[in-house]
Design a protein that fits this description.
Elements lengths: L3 E2 L3 H24 L15 E4 L2 E2 L3 E8 L10 E2 L4 E6 L4 E9 L2 E7 L9 E6 L5 E4 L4 E3 L3 E9 L4 E9 L7 E13 L6 E4 L4 E4 L8 E7 L4 E4 L7 E10 L9 E10 L2 H17 L14 E3 L7 E2 L4 E3 L1 E8 H4 L10 E4 L12 H6 L2 E7 L4 E6 H4 L19
Parallel strand pairs: 2-22, 3-23, 11-23
Antiparallel strand pairs: 1-25, 2-4, 4-5, 4-8, 6-7, 6-9, 7-8, 9-10, 10-21, 12-13, 13-19, 14-17, 14-18, 14-20, 15-16, 20-24, 25-27, 26-27
Length: 402
């Protein structure tokens, strides 16, 4: 026998048969269902979408795109080469710079330190000359974030992160949040070897070149808004931000969230709450929305053109937390790593399996010995964390390993 596989083939065959059955079921179901097309969707396809808020104590980030059909809800049709600026009521302009990062186009405007006593608007001019301008809005000051925490549901194996905040002056009433998240995770197997496909040899590597520790990051995509207008006190208690299951890599080692809190107007809250309700039913924010949802952005060239987006301005509050895997307590390492042992070729009856063929088949070496000449291989996703992230550790990360 050329290769010893520690996992039996029977579970793999069951998985394959299950996938075939699942695919067949989906085909049959899809052939019997008429796609749902909400009323008004086709008429507002390809609308201009302008996202972002004017931040008095940070960089303003504006994205410009076009709305897409429901079937394309996972894509974003960004508009590039636009001219974007923030302008105050006195006519002072702050010009944006176009930046492409991780496939996302944004226009960054340095608004840190602008006069909070003035009103501001966002202006966007497309290559074709179309000019889009938001209403002038005041800079609203957010109260500080009291705390960020999480609750663990051991029965359902899930964790939910939440925010607590309040305004002792009872003035805010309407809140909006966004967050960036970073997490450290590890490969299931550590390897201090690597295969060189050019020299066709396995060599030992130093630990500082390990493929065990990795990091990844993301930004919030859900619409997170709340109001306390119906309450006696201006207090938000355990507003849910994001939930994760037991197989989520974000909670497999160390998770961090930096939360941004913004005070918004009642009109802005109604807009975002309507968007949230329709996004839950139709798709993401870039999917078409019912025509009655109107923002505060207008096309100067064509006042009848409908535009998606609502611009607010504010002095935001921020807070960061870290959460350890051990404290969350629900993560379960997936049992999906098949181990392949390649024995000494002199002990084989037939031709040996080559390292090159394993490498080209998507395997990675995790152990190797010259005497006896034996090696152990696993699928690359089980030993090389770079499949799911990067070796670049955030500058603020609290541990010192690499």
């Amino acid at each position: 026998m050329l290769i010893t596989i520690l996992n039996s083939d029977e579970p793999r065959m069951r998985k394959i048969l299950f996938k075939i059955a699942l695919i067949a079921s989906v085909i049959i179901i899809n052939s019997c269902i008429t796609p749902f097309e909400p009323e008004g969707v086709t008429s507002i396809d390809n609308m201009v979408v302008i996202e972002g808020d004017i931040i008095q104590n940070d960089t303003t980030r504006i994205s410009v795109s076009r709305s897409l059909a429901i079937r394309d809800e996972n894509k974003v049709n960004y508009i590039t080469k636009a001219t974007v600026w923030v302008e105050n009521e006195k006519g002072t302009k702050y010009t944006g710079k176009e930046v492409l990062k991780k496939g996302k186009t944004q226009y960054l405007v340095n608004t840190n330190g602008i006069d909070p006593s003035l009103n501001y608007k966002v202006c966007v001019r497309l290559i074709g000359g179309q000019l889009y301008v938001s209403d002038l809005v005041p800079v609203l000051v957010s109260p500080q974030i009291d705390s960020i925490g999480f609750t663990t549901d051991l029965e359902n194996k899930s964790v939910t992160f939440y925010v607590n905040t309040h305004d002792p002056q009872n003035n805010t009433k309407y809140y909006k949040w966004s967050y960036t998240e970073d997490w450290e995770f590890h490969s299931q197997y550590i390897s201090l070897f690597e295969y060189d496909p050019f020299a066709k040899i396995v060599r030992e590597i130093n630990f500082d070149k390990n493929r065990y520790y990795c990091w990844s990051s993301a930004t919030s995509s859900s619409i997170l808004a709340a109001t306390t207008s119906h309450l006696a006190q201006d207090r938000v208690y355990q507003k849910a931000l994001v939930s994760m299951g037991p197989d989520d890599k974000r909670i497999s080692a160390l998770y961090s969230m930096e939360l941004t809190q913004m005070a918004i107007s009642s009109e802005a809250y109604l807009y975002w709450d309507n968007i949230r309700k329709n996004s839950d039913n139709i798709g993401g924010i870039f999917s078409p929305q019912p025509s009655e949802i109107g923002g505060n952005i207008h096309c100067v060239n064509n006042p009848s053109e409908r535009v998606l987006g609502y611009i607010s301005a504010g002095l935001v509050a921020k807070k960061r937390i870290f959460a350890k895997k051990e404290d969350i307590g629900i993560y379960q390492e997936p049992n999906n790593c098949e181990i392949v042992i390649v024995p000494d070729p002199t002990q084989l009856d037939g031709p040996p399996v080559t390292f090159q063929s394993l490498y080209e088949g998507g395997y990675d070496v995790i152990s190797y010995s010259e005497v006896p000449r034996e090696s152990i291989w696993v699928i690359k996703s089980c030993s090389d964390c770079r499949v799911f992230g990067t070796k670049t550790k955030p500058k603020f990360w609290p541990n010192d390993h690499i």
